[in-house]
Amino acid sequence: MVYLKTDEEVELLRKANLLVGKTLAELAKVIKPGVTTKQLDVIAEEFIRDNGAIPTFKGFPNPYGPEFPASICTSVNHQVVHGIPGDVCLKDGDIVSIDCGVKLDGYCGDSCYTFEVGQVSDEIKKFLSVTKESLYKGIEQAIVGHRIGDISYAVQTHCEAQGYGVVREFVGHGIGKEMHEDPQVPNYGKRGNGILLKNGLCIAIEPMITMGAIDIYMQQDMWGIITRDSKPAAHFEHSVCVRKGKADILSSFEEIEKVLREKSL
Ligand code: MG
Ligand code: MG
């Protein structure tokens, strides 16, 4: 069942999503070679709780194994999604996708950004910028009268045109009082397919893109997902509402990118 949101609900979703953006910006400040992903998790959880919210990932159920033990997913290099924070030390040239979810006043925020650690190669820089561009190509399609497939097609064609792969097993989703609601929002598909987009539809659009082949494995912790060819993967996510006919981005990379600009000076 797809729940269309009222304007009031959309503003609550925006508040939750802006907190996710602020949390990721706090992490952006400290991401550098030598930091462990566990340290990032500790900072994120404290920041989320200090702001009166709950980290929705913590304790997230898993049909295959243990609940998710942390407040963020930290997926490093060839990890695609759902990396569990731990003793892994970030190194110069790595990339780390940080996916963060919160619940604030009963509504969920969900957004992800892939960060560079120290100096990464030009090849990786291009890969990250194409993946991020594909997110915005998808968002451009999130307007009244279009269908989910228009979003999917836009993401897929943008990434595949550069020779990158689109992961099939994980998809975007509706968002509201629950982090994962209907409909599913695949990153691959055909134009004109899927449900019609209406005002009040709130969805997380989240390209999960590989530099090489799209085949993936689940790690033994029953959470982390890695590429089989060990090539890097990237993940960018915004929560978006179709509102007044257009795409209204509820999450924000503004604070994150402000921090990244300041760090590069
Ligand atoms: Mg997410
Ligand atoms: Mg999501």
Characterise this structure.
This protein has 265 residues and is an alpha+beta fold. It contains 5 helices and 15 strands. It has helices at 7-30, 37-50, 122-140, 148-160, 254-264, and strands at 54-55, 72-76, 79-81, 95-104, 107-116, 165-166, 172-174, 181-185, 202-205, 208-210, 216-218, 225-227, 233-235, 238-243, 246-249. A 5-stranded antiparallel sheet has the order 8-7-9-14-15. Helix 1 (7-30) runs antiparallel to helix 2 (37-50). Residues 110, 173, 204, 206, 237 line the site of one magnesium ion (MG).
Brief overview, please?
With 265 residues, the protein is α+β, with helices and mostly antiparallel strands. Helix content is 31%, strand content 25%. The chain has five helices and 15 strands.
Low-confidence stretches at least 5 residues in length (pLDDT < 50)? none
The secondary-structure element order is: HHEEEEEHHEEEEEEEEEEH
Rg for CA atoms: 17 Å
**Main sheet attributes: strand count, strand direction, barrel closure:** 5 strands, antiparallel
Total helices: the number is 5
**Kindly, what is the distance between the CA atoms of the first and last residues, rounded to a whole number of angstroms?**
48 Å
Number of strands: 15
Bound molecules: magnesium ion
Structural class: alpha+beta
For the structure shown, list the relevant keywords:
265 residues; alpha+beta; five-stranded antiparallel beta sheet; four-stranded antiparallel beta sheet; 5 helices; 25% strand; globular; binds magnesium ion
